[in-house]
User: Fold these one by one.
Assistant:
Number 1:
Amino acid sequence: MFSIRQLCILIILLTGTSAKKHRSVHVRPHRSCSDPPNLKEQLAEWMRESMEGASPDQVEDDWNPPVEEPPICERSPKAEGETTVMQRALCPWSTRVNFDDTREPKILSESFCLCRRSRGASGAFCLPITQEVPVLRRASCDPTSGHWQYIKSKETITIGCHSVLPRTQRATPLSKHYRLSQDLVL
């Protein structure tokens, strides 16, 4: 009457439709939430607060560059004539858009270093300069007002790249490693 293949297909179809019915019973309609009318003022206030105690820009020592470096990294910087900032830079960079729908502002412009080593003959490394930026993060929907609630947060973004010499450790005096001659007992 039914082949095994037809029976399997029938079971799969019945299971799929019963699962859909089962899921639809438990799904509650989500009340749509909107941004509060004073969201921009909240963000401006948080930015003012956070800038008062702003920490200086940070350098990220444990940074890994993009896997493949563009050709500009192999060329020496040029300073003559009508050159662009990128052509003169020891550590060229590019920018990208950082978009997050659950954050205000939703769009942040972010830089990234193109090269691992500084261009030229210095032997220095290119490292990103990062900064903490104040943002508001969407937390939950207030069922009474129908507005999203936001919490204050900070996000670290790269704002540029610069040339940094490798770290060196200062040598300790030899006297710290060897006994002094007057300490010798015969």
Number 2:
Amino acid sequence: MPVISGFNEDTKKYKTEYDKAIKSQSKVVTFLPHMFFLFGCAFISLWGIVSLVKTIPNLSLPTSIEAVKKQAIILENYSNRTWEGYIHIFTVFSLIYVWKQAFSIPGAIFLNILAGALYGPFTATLLSSILTSIGASCAYLLSKFIGQPMIDQYLSDKLSFLRKQVDENRDGLFFYLLFIRMFPLSPWW
């Protein structure tokens, strides 16, 4: 008995549509755990930071430079009273700074001013640099383990183009990266 050719074409068409639907569902299924993990990390760490901040007496959220100066005086008095107070302020300040850097939250100016008021300019600069490096490393790790699978899955064609551009400019990579950093408009996006 002869096979009707339309049947094979319809089967291929439905199979292709089915495969596309399965791939689309698969993307959502792999996307959700990563997002839940990221938001879980953010909210759990935020809860921990807020809990730590509440342990410092007479502290409020600064909204201006003057408020930061007032808070710095309060924190300096608290940290100068006892060694435990100093360690407490140092620990909370360090964790807030790293958390802020890890989740790319703006407000470094307030923390830098506060660090300068609490620890002096030299120590504050050194401390801010170290904490910024640690926070940036945490941000890198978050993006590597959570963001990279999503980027590879959803933006693979654009990512392969960018990788090709980096490979082509391997000899002058410093200047290439400097250029795309100074001019953030990316024509290939």
